[in-house]
């Protein structure tokens, strides 16, 4: 089952306490595509400028990533500059330059039309809406966003939220968007907009899956000895989540069993953990499914506890 994604493709400059990289491959759709292509074919919708290094295009062509919907425009590629401190769960955005995204309109090639899974990765909400409307065959739609759009494009973002099945937000973004201090209350407000699932990302503490049907699951994170750069962990999470679901036959009408949804969240956490081990997509490039499977086994061992209640 192929996965359609629209989102940013960027050149990132990132500084962490453990190093600095300049103008390396970044962007939400880049992390997502590289991660999800471990599972299935990805159909990428994005734009880059004439300054975009061709080595990255060659890299994606060598994986199962379809670039028919990637436009190359005269001008500058999206650029983002960020800095992390010792607590890598928070970061400062120092600069965002939309470049060719400022007047981009996505075009979905005919080869993308059979995509049943759609990921609206981080980018202007009006572009996410355009792709959502152009992909009516998508059976499961998943949305990600970030503080910039919550603050500057709230109305358009709300329109997108009302039309998708699953929303990914960090704990902080849930508070920013809903104005509720309690995550449970905030998530309840989000369900009032019609969502089926909300996944709350908690950085190095894991992720929470909430279902409008009452589903609740707290997924642990894989403990990492060293985090080099958490940039793209959220997009890689989405790549693992949707990547896993792309390998599963839904029950009906894109309804998945709660076991599969839980497994998908765990895949998300694991792929996110790999992404943090190096800058840019460096670790994802060499990642194998055997390595993911080994980490899956460890995580079960680390988080399983006896279901029998006992006081002795
Ligand atoms: P994440 O760490 O998962 O939130 O994703 C980080 C990636 O998002 C970086 O590679 C940036 O290039 C990209 N990014 C940063 N700001 C924006 C934005 N406003 N819109 C779209 N993508 C962004």
Protein described:
- With 312 residues, the protein is of the alpha/beta class.
- It has a 9-stranded mixed beta sheet, with helices on both faces.
- It contains 11 helices and 13 strands.
- A hairpin with a 6-residue loop joins strand 6 and strand 7.
- The protein is globular and about 70 Å long.
- Helix 1 packs parallel to helix 8 and helix 8 packs antiparallel against helix 9.
- Helix content is 35%, strand content 25%.
- The longest helix has 18 residues.
- The site of adenosine monophosphate has 17 residues, from strand 2 and helix 8.
Describe how the helices and strands are arranged.
Layout: E1 3-6, E2 10-16, E3 19-26, H1 28-36, E4 42-49, H2 54-61, E5 65-73, E6 78-84, E7 91-97, E8 117-120, H3 125-134, E9 140-144, H4 147-152, H5 154-161, E10 166-170, H6 171-178, H7 183-191, E11 197-201, E12 207-211, E13 216-219, H8 233-245, H9 258-275, H10 282-286, H11 289-303
Parallel strand pairs: 1-4, 1-8, 2-6, 4-5, 8-9, 9-10, 10-11
Antiparallel strand pairs: 2-3, 6-7, 11-12, 12-13
Bound molecules: adenosine monophosphate.
The site of adenosine monophosphate has 17 residues, from β2 and α8.
């Amino acid at each position: 089952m192929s996965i359609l994604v629209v989102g940013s493709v960027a050149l990132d400059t990132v500084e962490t306490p453990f190093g600095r990289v300049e103008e390396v491959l970044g962007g939400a759709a880049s992390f997502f595509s590289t991660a999800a292509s471990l599972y299935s074919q990805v159909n990428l919708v994005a734009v880059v400028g004439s300054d975009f290094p061709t080595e990255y295009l060659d890299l994606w062509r060598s994986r199962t990533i379809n670039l028919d919907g990637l436009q190359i425009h005269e001008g500058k590629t999206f650029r983002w500059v960020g800095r992390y401190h010792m607590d890598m769960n928070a970061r400062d955005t120092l600069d965002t330059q939309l470049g060719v995204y400022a007047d981009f309109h996505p075009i979905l090639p005919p080869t993308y039309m059979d995509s049943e899974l759609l990921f609206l990765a981080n980018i202007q909400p009006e572009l996410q809406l355009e792709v959502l409307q152009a992909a009516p065959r998508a059976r499961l739609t998943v949305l990600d966003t970030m503080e910039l759009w919550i603050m500057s494009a709230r109305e358009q973002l709300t329109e997108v939220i009302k039309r998708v099945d699953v929303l990914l937000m960090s704990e902080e973004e849930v508070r920013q968007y809903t104005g509720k201090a309690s995550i449970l209350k905030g998530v309840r407000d989000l369900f009032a907009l019609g969502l089926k699932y909300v996944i709350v990302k908690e950085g190095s503490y894991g992720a929470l899956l909430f279902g409008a049907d009452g589903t609740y699951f707290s997924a642990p994170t894989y403990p990492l000895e060293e985090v080099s750069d958490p940039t793209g962990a959220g997009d890689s999470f989405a790549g693992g989540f949707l990547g896993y679901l792309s390998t599963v036959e839904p029950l009906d009408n894109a309804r998945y069993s709660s076991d599969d949804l839980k497994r998908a969240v765990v895949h998300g956490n694991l792929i996110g953990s790999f992404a943090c081990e190096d800058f840019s997509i460096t670790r994802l490039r060499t990642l194998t499914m055997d390595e993911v499977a080994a980490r899956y086994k460890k995580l079960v061992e680390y988080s399983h506890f006896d279901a029998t209640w006992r006081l002795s």
